Amino acid sequence: MTKQKTSLQQWLIAAAVILVILFSAAGIDYSSLAAFTPSMGLEVLKGLMHPNWGFVYDGSGEDLLSLLLLTIGIAFLGTAIATVLAIPIMLLSASNLWKAHPWVARIGKFVCNVLRAFPELVYAIIFVRVVGPGPFAGVLAIGVHQIGMLGKLYTEEMEAMDEVPVEAVRAVGGNFWQAMLYARAPQLMPIYSSLSLNHFEIAVRSASTLGLVGAGGIGAPLIFAIQARNWAQVSIILLGVIITVFLLDLLTGYIRKKLR
Amino acid sequence: MKLKDTIHFNWYKNLFVVFLLLVCAGGSAALTGADFSEVFENAGQIGIFMGRLAHPDFSYIPDILNPMLKTLQMSVVGTVLGVLFAIPFAFLATTVVTRNRVVTGVIRFLLDVIRTIPNLLLAALLVAVIGIGEATGVLTIAVFTFGMVSQLIYEAIETIDEGPIEAAESVGANKVQIAAWSIAPQILAQIASYTFYALEVNVRASTVLGYVGAGGIGVMLNSSLALLKYERVSVIILTILIVVAIVDALSEMIRRRLA
User: Fold this and answer.
1) Which residues contact A185 (CB under 8 A, 6 or more apart)?
2) Which chain B residues have a beta carbon less than 8 Å from that of A122?
3) Domain residues of chain B, as ranges?
4) Is the pLDDT of residue B3 over 70?
5) Is the minimum CB–CB distance between A48 and chain B shorter than 8 Å?
6) Residues of chain A with pLDDT under 50
7) CA–CA distance, B27 with A77 (Å, rounded to integer)
8) Nearest to B112 among A70, A117, A246 (CB)
């Protein structure tokens, strides 16, 4: 650890960064903060401190537990679809599988980029139109968005893998698919599983927001409660979401540690 | 790779896992009312949608430049605020600094809880509490950044070289002095790099925040979608894509310089 010399270039970068920050801070309209008073905040906090426990379970199928389960279901099925469909995309876009025809890999990567480009919310809006409002629209939105995400990550792992076992299989006369099954798959499966689990975590978070546009899950009741300023209801739903996400993160974290 | 990692071994275990996953997927499908035939039956709708998206209305660009700039400004201010608050909390979240498992545990739990709240829900909540506007968006981004960056920073602190800490301790430095003179110099470059990374993530995220009224380009996206003006939607999405790509490239360049 030595004291580094700061060059002129670094000073220039620092000055530019500070200018950008000041310019941004000056450009924002803070007028909405003026209307906010501490008593308002206090009222909200008071409401949030008294969760509506009656909403947790009432057997109607519209209660917190069933909606959370539905949200997890949306995330799981979405990620499962994405995992299954990301594999063919990965096979198309990994450049080390298409050494003779590099343009194929370029097409595959382009498909991934396009799929990733749209925000999940936009997919949700499209699919609400296609299959009607409901959880299935959420499943499709998450699925299609994550094909792009997982496809890209899978491709990166495939391109970065250790090729020695593949060469070994090819050297004893194994064909392309045998090399895939006996040399590539065993190396990549744990990483792919870990990535899919990680995206399941992300999907649970998105699934809880997709209800905003009518794509099912816990999002819709939460938005209604927020708009009605029913803080007791907001509080119990937020609590439910936070606990669910927290527990699932712990679970997937544990499984991912095992996979390593 | 060892021989026991190949698929001939443990195949029954893998089969069980696959079976379990299939059961979960089946359960989820039943729960969500998944009916894939519906997708193909209504594929025409996707075609119509895409067809209209394929005709962007470029004359709309001047109208969205200002909201786009606002979105960028919101991301920058939110990121800076979030990182500034994240630094002290990240220091407290490591036993390297606190030498106290309880303090570290409590702080980490708080950070974990903040991180679990989805971005858009946080925005919706803050909009309800504070009101519609760009300042709300800034606050949302700041809280989101705080959760994300504090974890990255405390993980960085845990991997530092402990020698300088020992040196400072042996000459009688207190905790603040250790943090400022032994730890901070080792992680400053990483903090800067994380800040730019957070900015990239935030620019992407902030483009949809307007959907719930937290300002920026999302407001335009929301209104164009609601009015079924897909020519505008496609221009907005294209603009977002280009801006995100530019921000990514710039920030990656700066991060490489920092490394």
Assistant:
1) B7
2) 221, 225, 233, 237
3) 63-258
4) no
5) no
6) 1-3
7) 9
8) A246
